[in-house]
Amino acid sequence: MKAKLNLRYTRLIIFSCLAVILAGVAGFWLGTHNFKIEFGRKPSLKIERKVPVDKQNIDFSLFWEVWDRLEKNYIDKKALDQNQMILGAIQGMVASLGDPYTVFLKPSDNKEVKEDLNGSFDGVGIQLGYKENQLAVIAPLVDTPAYRAGVKAGDLILKINDESTTEISIDEAMKKIRGPKGTKVKLTLMHSGEKEPYEVELVRDTIIVHSVEVEFPKIENCQSKSENCVVAHLKLLKFGDRTADEWNEAVSKIINYQPSVSGVILDLRNNPGGYLNGSIFIASEFLASGVVVQQEQADGTKETFSVNRQGRLLKQPLVVLINEGSASASEIVAGALKDHQRATIVGTKSFGKGTV
Fold it and tell me: Most buried among 64, 144, 184, 314, using CB within 10 Å?
């Protein structure tokens, strides 16, 4: 956020500091006060300044003092959105724990996470990144509006709807490029190695992102007795809503491949994880029985998750690939297969999240 430089700069700094205090103190209040948020066509908010009996020894006067000062004195009244102030206070409460794996997602952010795990979203089909500090196309997804319009990997994205992308974050760019199916977005791009930009107007569509891929590379100089030494390279990109169906389809291809494969490579590199039950499902494909993971709650109680189905890849030699981008559910699967001596783990140290 860029501050407006004017004669009221000092005053803005003062109230920015008060806003920070609000975010931190508000967290405590939110956990101990009765409040109600109702969303209709226009977000509305009702806050009751009542303290529960068991919390009356906690002083929340500072919270209300800051809240009232903001409402009375803040220079930009239009920026005082009570719903956003409450959401910001909740974020402050959770962030005060200092735990990177305990977060509060605002409704808009939660929607994006669910879209990612669901494997579908409305957009144009561009993977975003940076090239020489400029927003760029990492790759257009096949058979998407961007792909069909001739957008290429390495293209620089100079403008989005005529707005410059200088210093724009990937998150901001993603929000500008994505949108409801059927709506349009104009991009100004420049092919790698060229000097003249070009424009495309893309109609947004529903984009499907697969979470499972399988290939059958032939291995030279292998020690298999089979004349045709072929392995199944099974790449798992995330543990999402579509993973089980796509996984079953990929495993069926492996089972039916002729000649039969000599082994399986389970590629978990750069897999950030996803749903816990997804890790149990995947591990159960390779393990006949046993514990996959044990989860310990805050009160000390433990819950054990074991193999829960009949796997179809129980005997094939197995190698698991991991790297520093393998986290959460990926580490559960790799750890379970290693602990049961079912697979050889190859790669670099994983992310080390250790929580689900």
Answer: 144
Q: At residue 56, does pLDDT exceed 80? A: no
How far, in Å, CA of 191 to CA of 214, rounded? 31
The structural architecture, per CATH, of the domain 114-208 is Roll (2.30)
Per-residue DSSP letter, 79:
G
Q: Is the dihedral of CA 100, 295, 107, 80 positive or negative?
A: negative
Per residue in 127-176, pLDDT (tens digit) is 888 888 899 998 888 899 999 999 998 899 999 999 999 989 888 899 99
Catalytic center residues: 328, 339, 353
| Residue 254 DSSP SS3 | helix
Please state, rounded to an integer, the average pLDDT across all residues of the chain. 84
In whole angstroms, what separates CA 168 from the centre of its chain? 19
**Which SS3 state, helix, strand or coil, does residue 218 take?**
strand
- % of the chain residues with pLDDT over 90: 53
d(CA 241, CA 220): 36
